[in-house]
Structures are given as structure tokens and as C-alpha cells.
Amino acid sequence: KICMSLALLWPDISEITESKDHSECQKLILEAMKYHLLPERRTLMQSPRTKPRKSTVGTLYAVGGMDNNKATTIEKYDLRTNIWIQAGVMNGRRLQFGVAVIDDKLFVIGGRDGLKTLNTVECYNPKTKAWTVLPPMSTHRHGLGVTVLEGLYSVGGRDGSSCLSSMEYYDPHTNKWNMCAPMCKRRGGVGVATCDGFLYAVGGGYDGQSYLNTMEAYDPQTNEWTQVILKFILYIHV
């Protein structure tokens, strides 16, 4: 699933040409119009799309970051009790790192400790409340993008002196990192997501001062990146 800012959405869905040529889109648009234009009939038009959204995950984790106390802690928030509690402590300080979840374990990747860019990786097991140090990445990265697609991908970021186009893949079965094909553009503070077996890299900065409004897609089967044509404003830390 990909989350998008409301600023990127069209204010009038009827103006989108693609929706007019797609029967399924037309059905959804007609359903939404009826729901909003006929409030007295809403009780008869209930569906999964009309129900309030809610999280099905019991716990939210906040990891590391920066404060006056040089935070190394991990805290968890219980949605049922509305309480934050400390769940553990990392092996060192981190900010501008990447986080992902595989098999109910929390992976913390790269980042920086002050001015020092890191390539280290840690894994937190909520069941045992223990941290495990994993093999480091080949490249030191902060401001990187991290996502999961049959393993863990570490995308772009900065190495302390420049923005990066490189990407690495962590295989949890072999416990090893492998370099992948680099992106078409260098991207620091890049946003990443997966959809239908592809990895997407969105926006980011390429020289520390200028930002990109482009997106590219990675196919793990061919180990190739391709440009995706989009029209939106410049974004960093998407």
C-alpha cells in the first residue's frame, strides 16, 4: 500500500481522464456521489468503504531520534490503554535512520550518530525484548529509504558527504546484504514503497540543496530501474 499526501490528489475526481475510461472507477465514483448526495439513504448504502478506518495493530513503536538526552530508547504505545511505555534500549544513538518490520521483528537500519553516518543494523524482537546486531550494510547511509519486498531494501540516502543512488538488499534467510542496481538519480531523504511486486522511489534531494519531483520503479526480477512519469511538486523526506 502507498500513502499519499492530500496535496497530491485531484480536487475533482470527475476531471481525471483515466477514470472516465475505466468501468470499475466509474462504479466507485457513482457510489460515492449517491452516498454524499442522498444522506437520507446512507443507512441503506453501507459497505466497507463507508465504515470508519481503524488500525488492526495493537502496538505502535517510536524508536531513537534526537533529544537533549541523546535518546537510544524505544517506546511503545498501546492503542487500547492509551499509554506509552519504554520497551527497550538500542546499542547506540541514531537519527535519520530507516525502520521496517519482518516476521514481527523491528529492523533499524543506518542513520547517523551526530555527524557520524552509520552502516550498522539492529533487530528488535518484541517477544523477547532483546536486540540483535545484524551484519552491517556495505554503505554508510542516513536519510535513507527502507521498505520490505521478500527481504529488506535500503535505498539511497546520504553517506555524510553526498547523496546516494545505490541500493542494497538484505536477505533474512542468508543474513547477508547484497548490492542491487543503482537508481537513475541520486536521492537523499527519498520516500519508498512497494506495490504489485515493484519498489518505488519518490522525490528526495540529489545535491543537498535541490529536490526532485520524479519517481522511478525497481523490478527485483530484472534488477532494473525505470522512470515513472508523474506531475507533482518537489518533495524531500516523502
UniProtKB/TrEMBL annotation:
Pfam families per record: Kelch_KLHDC2_KLHL20_DRC7
Keyword Zinc recorded: no
Keywords attached to this entry: Kelch repeat
Protein name: Kelch like family member 1
Species in which this protein is naturally found: Cyanoderma ruficeps (rufous-capped babbler)
